[in-house]
Amino acid sequence: MNDPALSADHDHGGDAFRPLYATRVSVSGGGFAHGRASGRARSADGALDLRLRMPAELGGDTAGPNPEQLFAAGYAACFHGVLSLVARQHALDPGPIVVEVGVAFGRDPEDGGYRLRADLVVSWPGVGAETAAPLLDLASELCPYTTMTRQGIPATIGLAP
Fold first, then answer.
1. b (16+ CB within 10 A) / e for 18-36
2. Contact (Cβ atoms closer than 8 angstroms) between residue 65 and residue 72
3. CA–CA separation, 79 vs 81, rounded Å?
4. What 3-state class would DSSP assign to 160?
5. Residue 24 sits in which domain range?
6. Domain total for the chain?
7. What is the model's pTM?
8. What 8-state DSSP symbol labels residue 2?
9. DSSP type of residue 3
10. d(C-alpha 10, C-alpha 132), whole Å
11. Are residues 119 and 54 in the same domain?
């Protein structure tokens, strides 16, 4: 497998957002007409096609992944990719890096609505904390998922014709 072509050094430019990749995933409601509890998620290219289920802690049957697990997987994969790039740029082996993301779904104490919390833990055997810490900071600055969790993302909501 070839190394990914993206790099923090050369794949940017211009004053406007320039998509490098875009995808679409549709979620339908399933048996309970509730995407989170019994939905089906399908990507436009067919690479993702799975049933969504509520976790047992929220009354679900756990017969499929839930949105928090999918978010955690995406966040961990993205952060891992960025950290691997940063490691290579500093002549370090990214092979042993493992990124674990914990996502919690709960109530927002300010307004009673729902909120997510994410916690990342990086395991990097053979690399000391003094070496790893500044690289984790750099990866955090470069990772779009980390930026999203800090600042939010531009989002639109519309109704299909």
1. eeeeeeeeeeeebeeeebb
2. no
3. 5
4. coil
5. 1-65
6. 2
7. 0.88
8. P
9. P
10. 23
11. no
